[in-house]
Amino acid sequence: MARPKKQNPRSRLVNFRLTEAEFDSIESEASAAGFESLSDYLRYLHEQHATTAYKHKGVKENAVLYGVPEPSLYRKTERGKLYHGDALGLLHKTLEPDSVDLIMTSPPFGLVRKKSYGNEDADQYVEWFRPFAEGMRRVLKQKGSLVIDIGGSWKKGIPTRSLYHFELLITLCRDYGFHLCQEYYWWNPAKLPTPAEWVNIRRIRVKDAVNCIWWLSQTPWPKASNKRVLAPYSESMKSLLKNGYTPKLRPSGHDISDKFGKDNGGSVPPNLLALANTESNGAYQDYCRANHLPVHPARFPGRIPEYFIRMLTDKGDLVLDPFAGSCVTGEISESLERNWICIDLDEMYLKGALARFVGIKPQLPKVDSTPYQIYPPCSMNGALDDSLLPEDGGVKRSVEKSRQTFR
Ligand SMILES: C[S@@+](CC[C@H](N)C(=O)[O-])C[C@H]1O[C@@H](n2cnc3c(N)ncnc32)[C@H](O)[C@@H]1O
């Protein structure tokens, strides 16, 4: 009798080239783990990887799990919808799966000292964020991106930092299958030197002036183009473009080809965004003050969402901000002709956000391309203070030191 055909015939034969050492190591690992063949071992490793990477790909549409109601529509504009309520309801119920091109957001940070807009406890942060992460995976298109602006935090009473925002990043990649496209740092040159106790009084830390911005995606190949966010050329690059460039090997070993001298319209920016967050007057603030509404205390400047919206979406795409606050993301999306959805828990912030959509068309921030200045490390050659370092790490707060004011 003929043998029945195999359901799943293993008909592909694949050759791998390995060094002797690699082969020995793989074979001994496989046999130690009880596999009869290298093929079985390889299949096992692949399955393991695939389940970890895509564990949350098929997010259960178990909205009941989160027991939150659907949010209510608060205001509609030509391109956008502003909702009032819990973002979990929006992410798990209201929005269609695979419908959003970019999630651009700044969630409440994990702080030790809570602020007025309801920050989450740094220690509990990742657990708090999990259901949002699931919902974000659910609604984001395969080629879409998730951009999270998040500030760091100090531990209570000691001069060391919380790891919560790094833990969030690792959890999003390890447990929810996101890829880290790139980590950005947003340097705010106008940040005050805090916490005063560590920075100004004991003088044992420097000022914390960067937020992290995690750019994540569902695949390693989300849609993106850095040509949308080019920076002006430096004076030396302009002169090089004008006067020509001789291709040569750099001291670093990089071979700079003659293509380096080609004018591409601007330079590729670094993953450091330099932008002061100082806007204290403007139509939004005027509206809030005139209507006795709170001005949102944790707004990001419009240029932050503008940068990622330009780089990661096309006109007509859908941008979502699940922690919208004063709806900066909505205003910028509307101006850039993207569709948008924003939501916030706090109705007082939404009332203020309406300022961005009454009467006049939403505006992009005014163009100001003045570069900021930052000195190279040790620019003063350590000339100011030659006293010995505190052996105790600054644990004793010296009276003399505490009288010093910061400069
Ligand atoms: C850092 S602020 C965002 C500020 C915003 N980027 C802006 O420029 O105005 C975070 C916001 O998330 C809101 N929020 C916190 N939990 C929420 C939830 N479960 N659903 C919706 N919004 C939430 C807070 O009310 C707060 O306004």
Largest sheet: 9 strands, mixed
CATH superfamily of the domain at 63-241 and 264-357: Vaccinia Virus protein VP39
- Give the total of beta strands: 13
- Second-tier CATH architecture of the domain at 63-241 and 264-357: 3-Layer(aba) Sandwich
Range of strand content = 15-25%
Q: Please mark out the parts with pLDDT under 50 across 5 or more consecutive residues, or reply none.
A: 51-61, 401-407
Helix/strand-derived class? alpha/beta
* Radius of gyration, CA atoms, in whole angstroms: 26 Å
The total of helices stands at 12
Amino- and carboxy-terminal Cα gap: 93 Å
What is the H/E string? HHEEHEEEHEHEHEHEEEHHEHEHH
Notes on the protein architecture:
The protein is α/β, with parallel strands linked by helices. The protein has a domain at 63-241 and 264-357: Rossmann fold (3-Layer(aba) Sandwich), CATH 3.40.50. 29% of the residues lie in helices and 16% in strands. The chain is built from 12 helices and 13 strands. The protein has helices at 20-32, 38-53, 87-94, 125-139, 164-174, 196-201, 235-243, 283-290, 303-312, 328-335, 347-353, 399-403, and strands spanning 72-76, 80-84, 100-105, 110-111, 120-121, 140-151, 179-187, 210-217, 248-249, 255-256, 272-274, 318-321, 339-344. Strands 1-2-13-12-3-6-8-7-11 form a 9-stranded mixed beta sheet, sandwiched between helices. It has a two-stranded parallel sheet with strand order 4-5. It is globular and about 85 Å long. The protein starts with 19 loop residues before the first helix and ends with a helix. Residues 51-61 and 401-407 have low confidence and may be disordered. Bound molecules: S-adenosylmethionine. The site of S-adenosylmethionine (SAM) has 21 residues, from strand 13.
